[in-house]
Sequence to fold (96 residues):
Amino acid sequence: MGANGYEAQCTEQQCPPKSPLFDFAPRPDMTQCCRPLVKTKCEVIVNGVPTIYKEGESWSVSGDPCRKQKCVRDSSGAIVETIVEPCSTKCDKVRM
Fold:
């Protein structure tokens, strides 16, 4: 026992592993051992390949010149937002 009559007890805590889509957030309470994880990246399948985008990055949707997607943050973390813009693309006439 310590001088004040208390004895410190230590236990090891296993924190969740960090994945490529998540980053550690600031610790809101210094009594917590593990820092919380927050989703900061978006994963989408592009041409059959998983692709990771950071918050703020945008990309074109394959086959649709009027549609873009962007990785944005909402209250639950990073999500994919779809943006549809007015199209000015002219189509070629099809000859038969």
